[in-house]
Amino acid sequence: MFSYLGEHHMVQEGDRVIAGVSGGADSVCLLFVLLEYRKRVSFSLAAAHVNHGLRAEAGEDARYVEELCGREGIPFYYIEENVSARAREWGCSEEEAGRRVRYEAFERAAQEFGANRIAVAHSQNDNAETMLFHLFRGSGIRGLGGIRPVRGRVIRPVLCLQRGEIEEYLSLRGISFCRDATNEKDAYTRNRIRHHILPYAEKEIASGCVGHMAQTAQLLRETEDYLEERAREALQICAEGAPPRFCIGVEAFRRQHTALQKRMLFSLAVSLSPGQRDIAQTHVRELLTLFEAEGNRTVCLPFGIRGRREYDRVILERDLGGRREWPPVSLDIGEHVFSEGGTVRQEGCFGELRISLLSGFDKNLQNIPQNECTKWFDYDKIKKSLVIRTRQTGDYLTIADGSGREAHQSLKDYMILRKIPRQERDGLLLLAEGSHVVWLFGHRISEHYKISENTKRILQVQLLRSGETEDKNGRTCEGAVVGERGGPTDPGDR
Predict the structure, then answer these.
(1) CA angle 150, 156, 159 (to 5 degrees)
(2) Domain 2-221 adopts which CATH fold?
(3) Axis crossing angle, helix 281-288 with helix 258-272, rounded to the nearest 10
(4) What would you measure as the largest C-alpha separation in the chain, in angstroms?
């Protein structure tokens, strides 16, 4: 058990961890596992309980968890929600609404507690249910890989245990827990998998099937990570640009394996979709036809996304119709943000931006990133807040004038000189300090912010085109997400 936490680097000395505790067997086991682990590793621990407003006895569960936390001397956070109302508001099932509500509540409690880790109580049985759920829905490798031990700052310390092992652990220690009556009903899809499919498979097909599926899930996650890494490398070779327009070289694309081709197209299409959703493999297959034969033609996808063949290249873009659909996003990059040596993450329609403050680098400037998605800037030259937005009147870049000095060039003139089509200019995103363009995504950065031999601190900015990826230890990897569409990866916390 403790080796599992160590293997995946879930909790480190000095961490602040908030655990989601419903009062059920899995979450109570989670709490006691963390309490025991705290005797080995020094960290702060608190618990959060979410009342979904679906059961009359939910108040009893909350009181039990609060009393448990009181006995153990740890902070307790209580959050009350109306999941039925949220489900109607969001137009989704109560099961999905409950999952979203829980994670939002855990995030709020983590912010109040100052936690850098959120622990949730998923078990091997939850993992098996998730794998089957995704399999039946037609998921790819990512979905079949089940639940990751670590995703961002969310950790799952009891994912290595089966439900029977969890209840045995609690029984041997004389620890009581609550029973949720809704888990016994077949109203939810996962409950039907839990009550009927997995027990039948265990009895009639293969004893130990839940453990076997956990082993398979690990292999699939490793395969997914490897393929994503290869696809990111292939994207650097085949594609250039940034939302809302990418250009893909046909010959370079054709040289890649089919699996990588699909992942690249999926990644780019998702990065163009609002909310980064609703792109399926059927859309990827349509885009693939653009690379199969010569001739200029167009493929239309949802949200105004279009792929068109132009001789030896394919253009993938979203038609913004001249509208500025992406509102400005302000970035807080004050020194206090980096006081713990962390990374700032900002998500939006542009994908995800990751900002880190670096110090101590090669004075020969040999390690400056050369790819389209990662740029370095002299942190001490930035005096105001940075903003992600589309262009505005008065925007300018600084360029080298040939005599070692910097000169201003209007963004409009730059776009004209670079022959950027008029219909695309309003949709291009940029990073700006006031009217000074720091980085026009997919094009260039201003000379003024470039690092030099005199730079003391570097601001590293990474633009991920469609969300985050994780390595085998759950830590964040650089690059754009590529892969196949899957459904929700997290079942209800029990």
Answers:
(1) 115
(2) Rossmann fold (3.40.50)
(3) 110
(4) 80
